[in-house]
Structures
1.
Amino acid sequence: MLKIQPLRDEDWPTVWAMLEPVFRAGETYPCDPAITEEEARLYWAETTEASYVARDAEGRAVGAFYIRPDQPGLGDHVCNCGYVVAESARGRGLAVALCRRSQEIARERGYRAMKFNLVIATNEAAVRAWLKSGMRIIGTVPKAFRHARLGLVDAHIMYKEL
């Protein structure tokens, strides 16, 4: 049982605890690995249209996501999302559940499509999860991401009409 709710101020420390190791690793998000907590909050919760936290049956925060317009103005009918899953909850299909729920919320908010601009090709778990969620790869940008361990790697652009 997964309960997805809007992110509240008191949820931020738990979300930051999930995000910080992911950002610091420099393997999946374009954020500077030295990002401060304040900068991360601005990126994840303050400059987005909506942010959510996912809790398991015991009430533990196990994931989070945000939704924002991919482009301003005449491109704001397509949304962009970001996701994080707690390390202790990985490998159980949670990313797929979060993505599918974000698609429902995006539809409710009037978005017509969802686009991910930088899905790191070496992040095979994410690529699989987004494909299972109905996204498709519409392009690959060669060497678009400076991976902390692997150097320059490809990044996919993924898309789904809602």
2.
Amino acid sequence: MTITGKPAQAQKKDFGSWNVINTRLTLAPKFEIFNELQLRSQSFYNNHFYYEVKGGISYFINKNFSFLAGIGKYVTYSDPGSFTKPVSANEFRFWQQLTMNNYLERIKFEHRYRVEQRWFDTGYRNRFRYRLNAAIPLNGTKIEPKTFYVAAFEELFLTNKAPYFERNRVFAGIGYQISPYFSVQPGYVYQYDYRNNVGAGKHFFQLTLMIDIDGNKNPNERIPGNLD
């Protein structure tokens, strides 16, 4: 992993796996709480090296604007092997986020702006992220129960210290909104990290399950997927 600035050379060429379970609970029409669990491996469902646990609260101004505040723990283990100690990065994080939506016919675009405060055993860092997400329903005019859709995003990661550019992440996949309460989204992720004047890329198969406990109560249309 790249958080520590030491790319895992032995596994970089392998196709990794990236698993996400996202759970949301609507408290009121404008408020919801969320929890997300992630597990990543350097090889395809082998050599697990990373997990994260996070949660928070969202506030929806209207269908086009929302705020989110979150907190999480992120742990990266040494490579190779599954959860091999010593731990190479142990992170505690706060973040604040603004999401804005706009539409072009059936295509929904989501602009996400995030500011992160990150604490490691080795010190503190800030990070700034921008993600452009898009989704197109394939058998309907919007993403609703029994709808297949195509989703894609690109995200930039920046810091306030040189060399400033930290990471680029690209995703493309196809999803299915099973019901108001469940959706599943398999896809492909390419992540490029830049550390200490050295760049390294990594390919992942990503599988996301979203559980919306009160999905029929939330009036805000959103693109299913992970909150990372």
3.
Amino acid sequence: MAIPRPGKPVRGSQSGAPIMAVFDLLGRRWAMGIIWNLSRGAASFRALQGYCETISPSILNSRLKDLREAGLIELVSDGYQLTAMGEKLFQLLKPFGDWAIHWAKSVSDDDPARWDNYRTRKD
């Protein structure tokens, strides 16, 4: 399966609007989780499997291929890392992580302090 391409029909858009192509790509199982985990720095295949907990090796391999083809990650000597474009995307996603913690505190029955462990990396 090829990555979604702007200008071609994608999930949610027959015209292939660029935002819909990105949403289609990022909506694939584990795509955002891989990007989120690579924001820590380069990671090997095995390390990514550990970070993503329940991901199967075949899905991880497939998502890494997709994200490489999309120019968001690259293979380096340490494993995989975000490209400049991938880092830019992470910087856009980071505020959603902060918002999600605020949201979790407002709807969860758990101790609100629990969610503080989910803060994104500090720049």
